[in-house]
């Protein structure tokens, strides 16, 4: 677009509109533009809304999930080395389905973890973050009229992605057990009812989405829970899209079990991972899908006709970083061994601070999130205007961002519409933050909790 020198993009758009340019921003034109049905009802996005709010009000930001500490030196150096390469190929297009050095090491790395040999060319697809891997799963494998089972609470994009593929999401909640005298509950207390789960499998079910460790709850599904899900997948001949982006972030001796490694599951599972989460570099947007060739081939079709491939230098850097980690897998010096130890301390720091002010945390077994119950929070909160449209937790977080300068994410955003009102008393915090940031959040909460009503 040719822009007048000195004009911002917004002003330029306004100028063009005034001059009668046929822009879609023009009201007259808007009515003539009919959107595609696939974008109907999926236009709202929690991240777009709350990232903007957190930035507008200059908050202590425990909202969107990303570390505010740097990736480790060996990871940053891998990127610098990659882009410093004189080998021009690093700066050009690479293989569509994954840069050869990256698919090679991903196959080696996860082959070891899954206990099976992976073919780099047919069992690995490199994507623009785990987001694109998820999108390719739904677009490549879900058809009009297919049902996809989603476990609530769920990472928000599953629902719109299923709908955009023409599928129907079918929800099953994790139900919290009562605390039975304990002051603090754990994400492990949130469980599926096996009968309720089995009842969700119908003739139209195509797939189930599993997310362990789970965002936003932090639940790490136990082997027994995964065996239940796997058994149902096999019995009903269903696919499993297993989002394992937080696979390294497990605490208190919990173990991450890969559902694809359970009997009968490899052939029906797409396992999704993220270099962003693995190496604390969410902005790199490198992810992958692992699975059998006859499933991945359909993901490749979506990928080659949309994104084609992701940035070569970023893939090269991730390949180098994974190579380093492969050499020291499970050893104390491994970043993937050290990171959860550091994060567990941060989790406990936030748990203590929230408990002290009556925001009851549900202790997460994994991820870098925790959810906290705000219903007994010991601080004055004004009567937030009732709304049939907007759940209480969302109004609470917006008020907190604007008036207290502390950002979180309302947990109702991770629920389907009928359930939102039943889960509107929890808010999610991200604790992958420098201790100074966590302390700043603690100060805000403490001062707030010591205020008298009306202050
Ligand atoms: N799945 C889950 C559960 C997530 O929390 C996220 C958030 N980043 C993603 C997928 C997307 O990961 P990426 O940033 O690699 O696209
Ligand atoms: N996965 C991150 C979270 O849950 C970020 C998601 C996003 O920005 N779209 O906070």
Automatic annotation (TrEMBL):
Organism per entry: Eublepharis macularius
Signal peptide extent: none
Cofactor(s), names only, from the UniProt record: pyridoxal 5'-phosphate
Alphabetical GO biological process terms: kynurenine metabolic process
Main localisation: cytoplasm
EC code: 2.6.1.64, 2.6.1.7, 4.4.1.13
Bilayer-crossing regions: none
Localisation per UniProt entry: Cytoplasm, Cytosol
Catalytic activity as recorded in UniProt: an S-substituted L-cysteine + H2O = a thiol + pyruvate + NH4(+); L-kynurenine + 2-oxoglutarate = kynurenate + L-glutamate + H2O; 3-phenylpyruvate + L-glutamine = 2-oxoglutaramate + L-phenylalanine
GO CC, any one term: cytosol
Family: Belongs to the class-I pyridoxal-phosphate-dependent aminotransferase family.
Pathway of action: Amino-acid degradation; L-kynurenine degradation; kynurenate from L-kynurenine: step 1/2
Name of this protein: Kynurenine--oxoglutarate transaminase 1
Molecular function in Gene Ontology: cysteine-S-conjugate beta-lyase activity; glutamine-phenylpyruvate transaminase activity; kynurenine-oxoglutarate transaminase activity; pyridoxal phosphate binding
Alphabetized PANTHER family for the sequence: FI04487P, KYNURENINE--OXOGLUTARATE TRANSAMINASE 1
Superkingdom, taxonomy of origin: Eukaryota
SUPFAM superfamilies for the chain: PLP-dependent transferases
């Amino acid at each position: 677009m040719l822009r007048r020198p000195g004009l911002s993009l917004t002003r330029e758009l306004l100028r063009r509109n005034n001059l009668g340019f046929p822009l879609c921003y023009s009201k007259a034109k808007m009515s003539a533009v009919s959107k595609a049905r696939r974008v109907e009802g999926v236009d709202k996005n929690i991240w777009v809304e709350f990232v903007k709010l957190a930035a507008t009000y200059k908050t202590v930001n425990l909202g969107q999930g990303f570390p505010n500490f740097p990736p480790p030196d060996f990871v940053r150096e891998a990127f610098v080395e990659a882009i410093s390469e004189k080998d021009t190929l690093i700066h050009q297009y690479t293989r569509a389905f994954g840069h050869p050095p990256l698919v090679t090491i991903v196959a080696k790395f996860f082959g070891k973890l899954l206990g099976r040999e992976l073919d780099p060319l047919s069992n690995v697809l490199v994507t623009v973050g785990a987001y694109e891997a998820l999108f390719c799963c739904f677009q490549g494998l879900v058809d009009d009229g297919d049902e996809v089972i989603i476990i609530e609470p769920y990472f928000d994009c599953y629902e719109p992605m299923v709908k955009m593929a023409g599928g129907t999401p079918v929800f099953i909640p994790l139900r919290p057990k009562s605390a039975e005298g304990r002051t603090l509950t754990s994400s492990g207390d949130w469980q599926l009812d096996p009968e309720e789960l089995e009842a969700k499998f119908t003739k139209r079910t195509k797939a189930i989405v599993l997310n362990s460790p789970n965002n936003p709850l932090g639940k790490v599904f136990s082997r027994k829970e995964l065996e239940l899900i796997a058994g149902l997948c096999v019995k009903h001949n269903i696919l499993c899209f297993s989002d394992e982006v937080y696979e390294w972030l497990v605490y208190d001796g919990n173990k991450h079990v890969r559902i694809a490694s359970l009997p009968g599951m490899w052939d029906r599972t797409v396992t999704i991972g993220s270099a962003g989460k693995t190496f604390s570099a969410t902005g790199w947007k490198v992810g992958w899908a692992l699975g059998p060739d006859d499933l991945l081939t359909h993901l490749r079709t979506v990928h080659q006709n949309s994104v084609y491939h992701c940035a070569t230098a970023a893939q090269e850097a991730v390949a180098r970083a994974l190579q380093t980690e492969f050499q020291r897998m499970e050893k104390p010096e491994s970043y993937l061994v050290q990171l959860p130890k550091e994060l567990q301390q941060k989790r406990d720091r936030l748990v203590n601070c929230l408990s002290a002010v009556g925001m009851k945390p549900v202790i997460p077994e994994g991820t870098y999130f925790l959810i906290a119950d705000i219903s007994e929070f010991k601080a004055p909160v004004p009567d937030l205007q009732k709304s049939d449209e907007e759940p209480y937790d969302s109004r609470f977080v917006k008020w907190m961002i604007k008036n207290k300068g502390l950002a979180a994410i309302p947990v109702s955003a991770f629920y389907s519409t009928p359930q939102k009102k039943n889960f509107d008393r929890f808010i999610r915090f991200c604790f992958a933050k420098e201790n100074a940031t966590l302390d700043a959040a603690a100060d805000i909460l403490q001062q707030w909790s010591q205020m008298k009503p009306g202050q």
